[in-house]
Each structure stands twice: as structure tokens, then as C-alpha cells.
Specification:
The protein has helices at about 10-20, 25-35, 40-65, 70-80, 85-115, 125-130, 145-165, 170-195, 200-210, 220-230, 240-245, 250-285, 295-310, 315-350, 350-365, 375-405, 410-420, 425-450, 460-495. The chain has 19 helices and no strands. By secondary structure, it is mainly alpha-helical.
């Protein structure tokens, strides 16, 4: 079967950027910078971008382009046993897809609420008690389905399915060309407006006020490298799948640089937007800014709605913010699902429509777990283990294999032959030493923390089932899928 191709370089770049830019850019980067030295955080962040983000993006692009398959087939061609890692990366994408779509569903709901500020004066109580109807403090107590969450969640699945089933050029590329420019215009417009508000500049100054003593703290460097891997969508099959659709003559190095720089630039723009809003909010309430800052979903669905209540023209600025969240979320979800779809298309030989229908249907059913009373708690535990152990562990194994078992220079020469500008031996050094060393430290620290402390104060059983249990199941399934592929290959050879 002839492999699909992107229709244009711009289409590929916008799709890759749409994958990398997600909800995490809007709520995770600003909080990470605030917590880790403010403006000083930009130093390790930019170093991480240059020493880890760009080199890893070039690696993923070169692998997908060279071997023309999704992650399992590509990594299997590097080393047969690495097919297990490829399937593990696909399963990382699958797990993220089924809980990430729940957050997109919340954003869709809040987009509707934002026209009239339906969350009322107490956004905290509304989100947890009225909207999520949060149950017992255990991810094992799911409770009942919440139909007001199920409906927007299924709408998000419908959009993703429509993009997938119409193909790389007709669906994913077309969606990216329309939605990513819209996302940038929404965020730029919202940022320019909130910067004019009293107290907004103070909020931005607070975010970027440098605390250079933080640079001596290893945790700050770990946070910067972790944020880079988290935000760029590397290490869980997406970029390998996307680059496998590139035409033969493709500027791999330039594409990688552009994708990383646009994504990181958007993160900083989002940071300015968020902290301008928080600065205005602090000024209106007469409290220090650090009293209105929160992380994760609290920032998006509690702090920002509270701020919107105080903003001029909330009926306009509210929909702009949550509209941006929806677009960022859906564009990332499409890319995550494409990584899974392409892997199973390669494995089964099914048509795109059949594969997308089966995969999206299964994903939609499983994602209902996160539309229950305990859905947020389940999401919290699973997300922690996926992001802190599975993704970073996957990246580490891939780097160690390429850097120490294979020859990095081989991939550097491959990309240089096809690119307008060449990368030097610094790329080999980054892959073999810099990125690997930081990931060894980060993954090691995360493993120690995860095994010695129960994340979030959840019970031993909850951590065992929803955290370690999910990771163990992913390993078992990855091994089973790779063996089945091997058995099929042997059967074809025997014929």
C-alpha cells in the first residue's frame, strides 16, 4: 500500500506544531516558570530546548522519514527487540488520548459557560461540586457517568474521528492549516487586550522576575528538561508517525527547528497571557499575586474563570480563552490518535477508515471512565505516572540505543543529506551525553519518588492499580503486540 504524504511543507509544520501545542503550553509552562525561578527558568529552559528538544525532534523526524513506518515498525527496523518500545510508545499515546479528551470536554463545556459566566461567583465550588460532581477521594471510586461531561467528550471524539478518517492531506493537514493560525490569532488578541489592564504588567514582571539562585538547584534543571520533553510530543510515537508521511525531498533539520521554536515561543506567549490576567486579578482583589496562582486544571477551570468574572467584556474574553483551550486540545488529540491509527494500519493492513473507526470507538468507550464522579482523580494518578515515568523512560531508552548502541553520526548524515543546512557533531554529543545524562537523573529521581511516596496522598491500592498497574499492563500488551508481529512475519516467510 502506497504511504500517504503531506500536501505541503507548511501543512506538515502546522500539524506538527498543532501536536506539540496543547493544553500544557497554556497552563503548565507558566506555572513551571513561576515555581522555578521566574525569568531565571528561561536559562535552563532554552538550554534544554537546544540540547534536548531540537536534537530529539531531529531524531524522531529522521527515523520516521527514513523507515516510512509508525513507531513500532520504525524502531523494530533499528533493532528487532525495539519494536516493543515502539508499541509501548503507541500505548502511551493511547492512554493519554483517553484521558486528555476528558479535559477537552471540560474546555468545550466551559466555552459555552463563558458567554454568560455560568460558573457564578465561586468557580472552585462550581467546578468540583456542580460540574465534576467529584466523589470520594479515591480514583477507585468512580461513581456514575455524568452526561453533561459525556456529551462534550463525545463531540471532541467526533471532531478527531472526522480529521483522521479523511486522511493525512485531506483531514489532518487541512485542520491544522485552519485551526493553528486561528489559535495563534486568538491567543495574540487575548494577550494584547489583557496587557492593557491595570496590574497586568506587574503580573508579567512577577513571572519573569529572575531568581538566579534557582540555577544552582538541580530540580530547576530537571523541571526545564522535563517540560521540554513534555511539551514537544516526543517519545510517544507522534512525531515518528507524522514524519513517515513526509515526501522524499524534505528539509528535516529545518522542519525540526521550526517546530520546536514555534512551540516554545507559543509557551512564552501563553505565559505572558496567563500572568497578565493573574496580575489584573490580584490588583482587583487587593492581594499578592502568589495568592491567586494555582497549577494544572485549577489554573484553567478555577483561577481563570474567577479572573474572567473581573475582566471587562467577559462575554468576549472568556470565549476567546476557552476557545483557544479547545483548539489547542483538539489539535493535540488528533495527532495523538494519528500515532495510534498509523501503527495499527501498518500492522493490520486495514484501510484508514476501518482502523480509525475501530480505534476511535474503543477509545471513546474507555474514555467514559473519566466522565464519572471519580474521573478527575483517576486522571490525576494516570497522568502522573504516564508523564513522569512512561514518557521520560521511553525517551531515555530511545536515546541510549541511538547514542550508545547504534551510531548517532549515521542519522546525522542522513538528515544533512536532505536538509538545507547541516547539523554538526554537537548533535551527537547532545544525543549521547547531554540529553541522556539529564534523563537518567530525572527518570531516576522520579522512580525513587514514585516508589517511596504515594503521589497525591492516594491509597496504596489506588497507586498500585491506577499507576503501576497501568504501566505494567502497557508493557505486557506491548510485548504481546510485538510478538504477534514477529509471528506474522515468520508465517509470511514460510509461505
Amino acid at each position: 500500500m502506497k504511504r500517504e504524504q503531506w500536501g505541503s511543507r507548511a501543512g506538515f509544520i502546522l500539524a506538527a506544531v498543532g501536536s506539540a501545542i496543547g493544553l500544557g503550553n497554556i497552563w503548565r509552562f507558566p506555572y513551571m516558570a513561576y515555581e522555578n525561578g521566574g525569568g531565571a527558568f528561561l536559562v535552563p529552559y532554552l538550554i534544554a530546548m537546544l540540547a534536548a528538544g531540537i536534537p530529539f525532534m531531529i531524531l524522531d523526524f529522521s527515523l520516521g522519514h527514513k523507515y516510512r513506518e509508525a513507531a513500532p515498525g520504525t524502531l523494530g527496523k533499528l533493532m528487532p527487540r525495539l519494536e516493543i518500545l515502539g508499541w509501548f510508545q503507541v500505548l502511551i499515546a493511547a492512554v493519554i488520548a483517553v484521558y486528555y479528551v476528558a479535559v477537552i470536554g471540560w474546555a468545550i463545556s466551559y466555552f459555552g459557560f463563558s458567554f454568560t459566566q455560568s460558573w457564578g461567583e465561586d468557580a472552585n465550588s462550581y467546578f468540583f461540586s456542580e460540574y465534576l460532581k467529584l466523589g470520594d477521594n479515591s480514583p477507585l471510586s468512580l461513581g456514575s457517568l455524568q452526561m453533561h461531561i459525556v456529551l462534550p467528550l463525545m463531540l471532541a471524539w467526533g471532531i478527531t474521528y472526522a480529521a483522521l478518517v479523511t486522511g493525512v492531506k485531506g483531514g489532518i493537514e487541512r485542520f491544522g492549516k485552519i485551526m493553528i493560525p486561528i489559535l495563534f490569532l486568538m491567543v495574540v488578541g487575548l494577550t494584547l487586550r489583557v496587557l492593557m489592564l491595570p496590574g497586568a504588567v506587574d503580573g508579567v514582571n512577577w513571572l519573569f522576575q529572575p531568581d538566579f539562585s534557582a540555577l544552582t538547584n538541580p530540580k530547576v534543571w530537571s523541571a526545564a528538561f522535563g517540560q521540554i520533553f513534555f511539551t514537544l510530543s516526543v517519545g510517544f510515537a507522534i512525531m515518528i508517525a507524522y514524519s513517515s508521511y513526509l515526501p522524499e525531498k524534505s528539509d528535516i533539520n529545518n522542519n525540526a527547528f521550526m517546530t520546536v521554536l514555534i512551540n516554545c515561543g507559543f509557551s512564552m506567549l501563553a505565559g505572558v497571557m496567563i500572568f497578565a490576567v493573574l496580575g489584573y486579578m490580584a490588583a482587583q482583589q487587593g492581594v499578592p499575586l502568589n495568592e491567586v496562582v494555582s497549577s494544572g486544571v485549577g489554573l484553567a477551570f478555577i483561577t481563570i474563570p474567577t479572573a474572567i468574572n473581573l475582566l471587562p467584556a467577559p462575554w468576549l474574553l472568556g470565549p476567546l480563552f476557552f476557545g483557544a483551550l479547545v483548539v489547542a486540545g483538539v489539535s493535540s488529540h488528533i495527532s495523538i490518535m494519528e500515532a495510534i491509527t498509523s501503527a495499527f494500519m501498518d500492522k493490520t493492513g486495514w484501510s484508514r477508515k476501518k482502523t480509525a473507526t475501530v480505534i476511535c470507538s474503543a477509545g471513546a468507550i474507555i474514555s467514559l471512565l473519566f466522565a464519572t464522579n471519580g474521573g478527575l482523580l483517576l486522571l490525576d494518578v494516570v497522568d502522573y505516572f504516564i508523564n513522569n515515568i512512561a514518557i521520560l523512560g521511553s525517551c531515555l531508552i530511545q536515546l541510549l540505543v541511538v547514542g550508545w548502541i547504534l551510531k548517532p553520526a549515521t542519522f546525522r548524515e542522513y538528515t544533512n543529506e536532505r536538509s538545507d543546512f547541516a547539523i554538526g557533531r554537537w548533535w551527537d554529543v547532545c544525543i549521547r551525553f547531554v540529553s541522556s545524562a539529564f534523563l537518567v537523573a530525572i527518570v531516576g529521581t522520579n522512580l525513587v519518588t514514585a516508589t517511596t511516596e504515594n503521589y497525591g496522598g492516594y491509597s496504596d491500592m489506588a497507586i498500585m492499580v491506577c499507576g503501576w498497574g497501568v504501566l505494567a499492563a502497557m508493557v505486557v500488551i506491548a510485548v504481546a503486540l510485538s510478538r504477534r508481529s514477529s509471528d506474522s512475519a515468520l508465517a509470511m516467510e514460510a509461505q
